[in-house]
Every structure is written in structure tokens, then in C-alpha cells.
Amino acid sequence: MTILYNASTSDGLRNFTRFLTNTNSTSFSDADVDAALNTYYGEVMHEILQAQDGWDFQGEYATTDLVANQQEYTLPSDIIKIKRAEITFDGTTWRPLTFMDINERGDALDSTTIASDFTTSKPFADLMDESLFLYPIPSSAVTGGLKIWYSKDVTDLSAATDSPVFADRYHKILAYGAAKDYFEKYLEVPGNDSKQVKARANYNNLLDEMREYYNTRNQDRDYILKTTNEYNEEYGINNI
What we know:
Layout: H1 10-21, H2 30-51, E1 59-66, E2 72-74, E3 79-87, E4 95-96, E5 98-100, H3 111-117, E6 124-128, E7 131-135, E8 142-152, H4 172-185, H5 192-215, H6 228-235
Parallel strand pairs: 5-6
Antiparallel strand pairs: 1-8, 2-7, 3-4, 3-8, 6-7
Helix pairs in contact: 1-2, 1-4, 2-4, 2-5, 4-5
């Protein structure tokens, strides 16, 4: 007889993990199960972000004010991937920010060279740790002058009613991952080697299905390949 568990919550995922591993709360504690589930939660989020099409998963939007003579702006604390950023230096005209790596610059960058090398009509930005640095540096304050579209991080599962934020049909993948690790830890127990192989196969199969799902949700959109010059011309971007 197959026992079905509600894998939509942390409690259900714990129970399903213990069903797969034939354990209980003593032999596989909540803390250990949650640690394994959240490890795979992070991996699954990474896979989704890599597979997603134009329909952005965990998409979010944030704005902040520009401060006169301030170059550094703190990014949202839950950001894991930037989709797009725009800026207005005058409160009217918006420009897309082109991201660059400061290491690509061979000369020194101080307030004088930044002012001479960068213009408000073709602004750039560099990402460092948890901050975004603007080129050129704003000369005046602008309310809501910086916009960022991004994919946000998730909060670890902990409370019994917590639920993964991705599609329900793939929640069980976290339990298969936790079970796979459990059997790998106790491979000396007779039968665990074959159980580990089965758990790994179930994990990989569900992972492939999930990648396909998140890669094909927006198939009504027509995708057109463009050359770099065509793309830059459309968005008003010039390379440094």
C-alpha cells in the first residue's frame, strides 16, 4: 500500500522524508531533516533561475531615491539575481543601466575621471557585494530615481506550515534529495545502496521535469536572436 503525504508543507515534507527512509523523529530529527530539505531548497531555486524563460520566477521590483553626490546604493536584502535596472537623473527621462566590471578599466577612477568618462545619457553600474555603484555619480537628489527588477531569495522552511514557493507538483523533490543524502550517509546498512540509487533517480527525474516546466511556461512569446550591435542599438547601449 502506498502512503500519500501532503508535500506542500514543511511538516508534510518531513513525514514523506521519514517514510522514504523508514525513520522517525528520533532517528531522523526535525533539525536534521530541515537542514537536508533546505539544502535542496536552495539547489532547486538555483536550477529554476537557470531554467526560467521570460516568465520570471520570484520576480520582484524595488525603487530607491538618488542622493546628490552618492555613488553607492544598497541592494535589496533578498536579491539573488538582477533582471534589469533603470535610472533617471532628472526625474523625467529614464535610462537603462549597463552593468560593467570595474576590473575592465585600465585607468584610475576618481570623481574627475568618472565625470569625464561617463554621461547621464548612457549610465553604467558595477556590482560589489551587496551594493550597486553608479557611473556617473548623481549630482542631485531624485525621489525614486533608481529602479531594479530582480529575482528574490527564499526563506528557509522551518515552521510546520511553511511551504516551498515553487510549483506544488515538484515539492517532493526536496524529500527525495534528503532521502538520497540519508542513504548515502548509512551505506553500510544492507539495502541502503539500492535505496540511495532509487532516491537519486527519483530526484533527477523530477528535477528534469521541473527544468522543462520552468523553461516552457511562456511559449506564446516569440523569441528573436539578435546580434550584439542590434541589441545595443535597441536599448541605447554602448560598450566601454
